[in-house]
Amino acid sequence: MNALSTILRELVGLVVDDVGFAAAIVGWIILAGSLSAFLRPPSPWVAILLVAGLGAILLDSVLRRAGATR
Amino acid sequence: MTVDWVHAWPTALAAFLASAVEFVEALTVVLAVGAMRGWRGALTGTAAALVALLTVVLLFGPLLTRIPLQAVQLIVGSLLLLFGLRWLRKAILRAAGVIPLHDETAAYARETGSLRAAGPAGGVWDAVAIATAFKITLLEGLEVVFIVIAVGAGGVGLLVPAGLGAAAALLVVAALGIVLHRPLAMVPENALKFSVGVLLAAFGTFWVGEGLRLVWPGGDWSIPGLTLAYLLVAALAVPLGRRRAAAAPTLAVR
Questions:
Q1: Measuring CA to CA, which of B2, B35, B103, B105 is 20 to 30 A from B190?
Q2: Is the ipTM of this complex over 0.85?
Q3: Is the Cα torsion angle B76, B10, A14, B128 positive or negative in sign?
């Protein structure tokens, strides 16, 4: 049981390290998906928005962590 | 089965580099087990974990082919994106000096210390050695299986180059381990994680976009563009993070 919970914890840890960071990524994906569902005809700008947002989330998370009290 | 060569080489490279990082971490612990408690237990634990991993792949692998490709791309792409950006974030923070670098020599010393503290083997089979080697091989191996499935999820035939990339990484790391007989401390792990993070984030973003039916400018050729975009963001984040860390308040140490 202990080994199983360790494996499960490790598997979740594969994709979630910082909960806020992971939630922001998932939220941005949902936002891009919602936007693309409404746009007809589909626009390449949604893809560009997806990438730009993910880059901004990464940069913001790094700077927040770096600026946190050590 | 046709292999899409636009994706095949980057897929194989991403799987090779990412798997190599995981295999290096597993090798450090297996070497520590072998050196401290004997090779019988170390190799038995490793072999048992490889059999368990093969069983997982054979049981769950065929299920993937039954799920519609678009759903696989969205789910696996999202997981790959989370995984890749997590690695990239950590590599940036390490490169900026915010968190310490991973040290295989220190990890080896830690592992040998705890194995020594576990006391002598009780019988013919050393349960501590077998369990330690089994656990690390299974955990790191599951990460490799995830990486192979994730980078190979984009289309028919991509699992083959992804699997070949991981297999090549296993052979290279195992050969280096046999020849050198010590942890691969000289492997520039953070540079590897940085590169792999960029590649996985680019692939993950592309698969998510495909799953959402987004229109990529340039079609499949947007993958190199995504790689370059993440590389630029990461390269910018390192000096900015370093500057922010230097300006951050430090807790007084008594």
A1: B35
A2: yes
A3: positive
